[in-house]
Design goal:
Pfam families: Arginase
Radius of gyration: 18 Å
Strand order of the largest sheet: 2-1-3-8-7-4-5-6
Keywords: Hydrolase, Manganese, Metal-binding
Number of helices: 11
Structural class: alpha/beta
CATH architecture: 3-Layer(aba) Sandwich
Number of domains: 1
InterPro entries: Agmatinase-rel, Ureohydrolase, Ureohydrolase_dom_sf, Ureohydrolase_Mn_BS
Helix content: 25-40%
Order of helices and strands: HEHHEHEHEHEHEHHEHEH
Enzyme class: hydrolase
Largest sheet: 8 strands, parallel
Shape: globular
Bound molecules: 4-carbamimidamidobutanoic acid, zinc ion
CATH class: Alpha Beta
Distance between the termini: 11 Å
Binding site for Mn(2+): 129, 152, 154, 156, 243, 245
CATH superfamily: Ureohydrolase domain
């Protein structure tokens, strides 16, 4: 889109205002209240009461915004200027109750439902992986059962912990049980590491998921994996949920449940770019826990993953116009 009265309001110009100056929004984009309506909204969900191990993902959105100051407005691999193509804005953080998981899930579902009611596509920054369940509930109301691509070291289809059903290890089991998902197009990508028992895998398959392990990505390669994923997804509405621990701890140390043998950040970014053309209706990036990060490695990786997600959605919206 050309500059003009209806052109999207883009990021602060880094040639005029130093990148490190001013309050952080994602990619230095305008706040949602500054533009009124956004085609794509970045939304922080600083909730980590669902974790089973190291806490701290509540600080993920703030760390990702800070790390995103260096992003630039043109995506060369996809030949797209996402922030000029459509209006992208930062919707701030939801004020989620850290002491009451049920209330937190209800708040997320309701407020995300309000955000997307006029067609805004949500791209959420967690927070721990518990938040995927209320996000999928809100998305299901708008889109019906969705294809899901779940990038994660973990299955997150376990049943419960200490009798708790709503945790970061259980969102995709609940979502499948609740009928939120299109059972013909569900894939985990990047899973690895020890499980509790072999039944974890048979249960996961029963819930509808296929698995592309981290080793599969290494052996088969990014292009072959992406081709089989996109074939399975077709033109279904697709939700992408990316647990940053899908990356190897060398590429993402700042997370709560790290597992050796993960994807490189390059593999993940190339997999995302190879999904160009899918009907991506919403996404999240979760489990960034900056207290365990070093030199912002994890927050930088997350900010770039989000940039690719926004670019894929901007391209889809551009095609629909
Ligand atoms: N969703 C994340 N990051 N981790 C889930 C780990 C659950 C478990 O160790 O049982
Ligand atoms: Zn995980
Ligand atoms: Zn997860």
């Amino acid at each position: 889109m050309q500059a003009g009265p209806d052109a999207p309001l883009g990021p602060v110009n880094a040639a005029l205002v130093p990148r490190y100056a001013g309050a952080a929004t994602y990619a230095r984009l305008p706040r949602l209240d500054e533009v009124g309506h956004a085609d794509i909204a970045l939304l922080g969900i600083p909730f980590d009461t669902g974790v089973s191990y190291r806490p701290g993902a509540r600080f993920g959105p703030a760390a990702i915004r800070e790390a995103s100051r260096l992003l630039r407005p043109y995506h060369p691999a996809l030949d797209t200027s996402p922030f000029a193509a459509v209006q992208v804005a930062d919707a701030g953080d939801l004020a989620v109750n850290p002491f009451d998981i049920a209330e937190a899930l209800a708040t997320i579902e309701t407020q995300v439902g309000e955000l997307i009611a006029d067609g805004t596509v949500p791209v959420c920054m967690g927070g721990d992986h518990t938040i995927a369940l209320p996000l999928l509930r809100a998305m299901h109301r708008a889109h019906g059962p969705m294809a899901v691509l779940h990038f994660d070291a973990h299955l997150d289809t376990w049943d419960s912990y200490f009798g708790a059903d709503y945790t970061h290890g259980t969102p995709f089991r609940r979502a499948s049980e609740e009928g939120l998902l299109d059972l013909d197009a569900l894939s985990h990508v990047g899973t690895r590491g020890p499980l509790y028992a072999a039944e974890d895998l048979s249960e996961d398959a029963r819930l509808g998921f296929g698995i592309v392990t981290s080793s599969d990505v290494g052996r088969r390669g990014v292009d072959a994996v992406a081709a089989s994923l996109t074939e399975r997804i077709g033109d279904r509405p697709l939700y992408l949920s990316i647990d940053i621990d899908v990356l190897d701890p060398a590429h993402a140390p700042g997370t709560g449940t790290p597992e050796a043998g993960g994807l490189t950040s390059r593999e993940l970014l190339e997999l995302l770019r190879a999904l160009d053309g899918v009907n991506l209706v919403g996404a999240d990036v979760v489990e960034v826990a900056p207290a365990y990060d070093h030199a912002d490695i994890t927050a930088v990786a997350a900010s770039h993953v989000l940039y690719d997600l926004v670019t894929l959605i901007a391209r889809r919206l551009g095609r629909a116009r």
